[in-house]
UniProtKB/TrEMBL annotation:
Pfam families: YopA_M
Name of this chain's protein: YopA central domain-containing protein
Organism (species): Hymenobacter cyanobacteriorum
Domain YopA central: 122-254
Lineage: Bacteria, Pseudomonadati, Bacteroidota, Cytophagia, Cytophagales
Length: 458
């Protein structure tokens, strides 16, 4: 068996939240006709916010203008300036700290795309990293960055007509994941390679592809993660390195829909995701629904707020899939249909019934104790309405709904969102059903319901 080598890593972390050195030595701060020569470091720091930051000693010796005039102009609050490395723009920055004594020490932070090198040059490969992505059992790869020859099941391969992406677990994946689970924050867990099918790729083209890929990764991860620390390669030489602070959520263990021991159908899902992404209008739909999904799944607004976010996602999916794409309803019928009927119509397309999942005892208890509630969609909508509306009767009703019933209602809505997105992506494999009540690894994995329906229909 020919086992491929692990993708080379150009951004290494031996522990979570470790700073990455971008540049050490001379760099220049430029504002209009004025400039300050700096000697110091530029690092990518994860806290207090993930971003490229600089620190160094300022020199004004080569300026024709008076040093004090330059200081008065550049050190004004809110001034933004260009940070140059080797006469190439790295990023736009602002000062965060100024210390004037025997030496002038300046610190600042990037506030734009942060790229070292010449981003105008076309490259034939882009190496990148991914932080805080969940564990997958992929195909075998061999080798480590230490030169040892080991085999692990750590590769996910994505292939489209325009590009191929290889995504491999980092050589120290298991070790650093344990540290991440203990300490929290951020850690590189995967490294990857993007290879275009045509002859070369520009910086902007690569950025557009990674924008799509990062949104897809967030959908399978259940929290935001992105391709970061990208390095454009041409003839085995690094041409440019992108240290922009793309969206990555700090580590938090959450439930998500992919099964752990198989990556089957992820490639076809990305292919379909990429097809939808090519339409500007549909791209906005994907970005919005993923935003609401990961926010609700992360409990960013606690359970009550996350229920509202999940309802927003379901409403968006309903309008995009049922009204715009399938045109099942039109005119006043589409406008006047109740929220619970919207959900019923949506999940009917997924071949999912309206019943409360058997494991959700508290939500079922809510249904049985309320005569006006007769199924799961109605239960979710009633709980959501009790949260949103401010009338005393609604507040009193909310106070009577147990926190466990509310939590189960949230999980139900997230399940509907996940199934809807899998249906939209024409997913045909097994997924993890968060409503199954499974307690052990491997349990709760089942075929998507539309494939089960198709099998029984044959």
């Amino acid at each position: 068996m020919n086992i491929p080598d692990r993708v080379k890593s150009l951004s290494l972390m031996s522990e979570p939240n470790q700073s990455l050195l971008i540049h050490k030595g001379e760099f220049i701060l430029v504002y209009g006709d004025d400039q300050i020569v700096m000697n110091g470091e530029i690092n990518y720091n994860w806290f207090p916010i993930a971003n490229a930051r600089f620190s160094g000693i300022a020199s004004f010796e080569n300026n024709d203008r008076n040093e004090e005039v330059i200081k008065l102009k550049l050190f004004q609050k809110g001034i933004k300036f260009n940070l140059m490395i080797d006469n190439l723009l790295f990023s736009q920055c602002r000062f965060t700290s100024i210390s004037i004594g025997s030496q002038t020490v300046l610190e600042g932070i990037s506030e734009s795309i942060s790229v070292r090198g010449d981003r105008s040059i076309i490259v034939n490969e882009v190496l990148f990293s991914v932080a805080n992505m969940r564990d997958f059992h992929g195909s075998p790869i061999k080798g480590t960055d230490t030169g040892e020859h080991t085999v692990s099941f750590g590769r996910i391969e994505f292939d489209t007509p325009d590009f191929t992406i290889l995504l491999d677990k980092s050589f120290n994946h298991d070790t650093i994941l344990k540290l991440l689970q203990s300490k929290g924050g951020y850690a590189i867990l995967y490294n990857g390679s993007l290879i275009p099918k045509k002859n070369g790729i520009t910086f902007n083209e690569a950025s557009d592809l990674f924008h799509c890929f990062s949104n897809f990764l967030s959908l399978i991860n259940g929290r935001r993660c992105s391709a970061i620390f990208k390095h454009g390669i041409y003839e085995n030489q690094v041409i440019w390195s992108d240290f922009t602070n793309y969206n990555v959520d700090s580590y938090k263990r959450v439930t998500s829909w992919p099964v752990q021991i198989s990556t089957d159908h992820l490639n076809s899902s990305l292919q379909n995701f990429y097809k939808i992404w090519k339409s500007e209008s549909d791209r906005k739909f994907l970005k919005l629904v993923i935003h609401w999904y990961v926010e609700a799944n992360s409990l960013s607004a606690h359970v009550e707020g996350s229920i509202i976010l999940a309802q927003t996602a379901l409403e968006l999916i309903y309008n995009w899939l049922i009204i715009e794409k399938k045109a099942i309803l039109a005119g006043k019928d589409a406008e006047t249909i109740s929220a619970s009927n919207k959900i019923r119509l949506l999940i009917s397309q997924l071949h999912t019934n309206h019943e409360v999942p058997l494991s959700f005892k508290h939500l079922q208890g809510f249904v049985e104790s309320n005569k006006e509630v007769n199924d799961a969609p109605e239960a979710f909508v009633q709980i959501r309405n009790a949260i949103v509306h401010s009338q005393k009767s609604k507040r009193d009703k909310l106070a009577q709904i147990s926190s466990k019933a509310q939590y189960e209602a949230l999980q139900l809505s997230l399940w509907y969102i996940e199934l809807s997105m899998l249906y939209i992506l024409n997913f045909k494999g097994n997924y993890y059903n968060r409503c199954s009540g499974a307690e052990w690894l491997g349990e709760g994995e089942e075929m998507v319901p539309w494939m089960v329906f198709n099998e029984y229909s044959l």
